[in-house]
Amino acid sequence: MKHFIALSLYLLATVSVHADAPQITDARANQQGGTWRFDVTLLHPDTGWDHYADGWRVELADGTVLTTRVLAHPHVNEQPFTRSQSGVTVLEGVTTVYVRSRCNVDGWSEGVVALELE
Length: 118
What we know:
The protein is mostly beta strands.
C-alpha cells in the first residue's frame, strides 16, 4: 500500500496541470489590405510577475504559427484585457485559424479557439 501511495503522489506531482490557462473570451480578425489584424481578449487570474498571461498566438490547423503576441507584463488589475497584432500574413484560401493562449507558469494552453476569417 505504501508503494501505491508513493507512486500516486509521484504521478500527481509530474502531471502538468493547466488549471490556470488564460481563457480566450473574444477573438476577432480584420483584413487590412493584404494582411490581417487580430484582437484577442484574455481572462486570467494574474497574481503579478510570478504568474501571469504572457502571450497568445494564431495557428493553422496543422500547428503552423502565423504570429505570436508577447505580453511583457502582468495585468492584475485589468481583467479581461485585449491586445492586438497587425500585419499578419495569412495565405489565400485559409478560412479558419486557431488562437492559443499562454501563461508564464503553465506554458501554452492545450485548448484553442477557432476563428473564422471573413
